[in-house]
């Protein structure tokens, strides 16, 4: 896999602190944007905040202000309802005017509850109906191989999304073709819209399932920034003729006590006083 342009080669304390700060930024911006929309997916976004921040500030090869760069790494988000956490990052990278964030989900604004790749610069996948992004990511990864392009593809999957059969069709094909520039990251927070993932349809033993389809597998605490960064950098920098699945163990609603592991907060909206309390809790760095 290619090394990221300008990315650090070690998990320096400065980089780790930067990623932690950007993860907090993602959570706070999520609260602000959902306040504009009057509905949104807090807990699903909070569980993957460190994953998004680690990818975009420590791993992905990007050029600031240049979403059209043909060799930049691709990121496809299956759990598109967490796009509210991705938009501030894309704006922070200069892919579009940050002022667009202030009109999130408003009529005429390109930033919707789910992302539209035809409207949002730097967004590589339009989602809404879950289960398709690994297939799309596989196509991109194979396309890079066929055209001689030098980029990797990272696919973020919700663990509830793994109930979709198309995920496993894509997993089988990726293993068969030995697509070493494809990385699937499972946000294993244990919950989906209807409750506990494994109560609805069990997905364990998850690591063994990926291995059975010919994938390398890594497991990591998805909120432990040094461990997450080290894992993703090792995957990025090694040469291997297999796709890799990263099972990131996370907490749905991470950072807000009353949201953590409460699947009722999959979709919601905070009253003004509750929003103020959540912002105070997120700014209290004791939990980070």
TrEMBL record:
Keyword vocabulary terms for this entry: Thiamine pyrophosphate
The protein's required cofactors: thiamine diphosphate
Keyword RNA-binding attributed: no
CDD domains linked: TPP_TK
Official protein name in the record: Transketolase
The Transketolase N-terminal domain, residue ranges: 23-274
Family affiliation: Belongs to the transketolase family.
UniProt entry tagged with the keyword Chaperone: no
């Amino acid at each position: 896999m290619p090394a990221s342009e300008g990315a650090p080669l070690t998990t320096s304390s400065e980089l780790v602190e930067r990623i932690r700060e950007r993860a907090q930024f993602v959570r706070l911006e999520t609260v602000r944007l959902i306040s504009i929309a009057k509905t949104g997916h807090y807990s699903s976004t909070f569980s993957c905040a460190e994953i998004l921040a680690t990818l975009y500030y420590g791993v992905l090869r990007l050029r600031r202000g240049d979403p059209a760069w043909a060799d930049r790494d691709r990121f496809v988000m299956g759990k598109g309802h967490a796009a509210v956490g991705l938009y501030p990052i894309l704006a922070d990278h200069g892919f579009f005017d940050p002022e667009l964030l202030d009109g999130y989900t408003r009529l005429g604004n390109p930033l919707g509850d789910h992302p539209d790749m035809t409207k949002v610069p730097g967004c590589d996948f339009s989602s809404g109906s879950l289960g398709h992004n690994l297939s799309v990511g596989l196509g991109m990864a194979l396309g890079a191989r066929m055209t001689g392009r030098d980029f990797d593809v990272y696919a973020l999957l919700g663990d509830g999304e793994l109930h979709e059969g198309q995920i496993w069709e894509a997993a089988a094909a990726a293993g068969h073709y030995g697509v070493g520039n494809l990385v699937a990251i499972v946000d294993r927070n244990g919950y989906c819209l209807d409750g506990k993932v494994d109560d609805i349809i069990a997905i364990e033993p998850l690591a063994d399932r990926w291995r059975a389809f010919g994938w390398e597998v890594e497991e990591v605490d998805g909120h432990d920034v040094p461990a997450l960064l080290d894992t993703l950098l090792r995957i990025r920098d090694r040469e291997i003729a297999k796709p890799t699945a990263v099972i990131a163990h996370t907490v749905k609603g991470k950072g807000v006590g009353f949201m953590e592991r409460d699947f009722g907060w999959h979709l919601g909206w905070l009253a003004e006083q509750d929003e103020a309390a959540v912002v105070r809790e997120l700014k209290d760095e004791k939990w980070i």
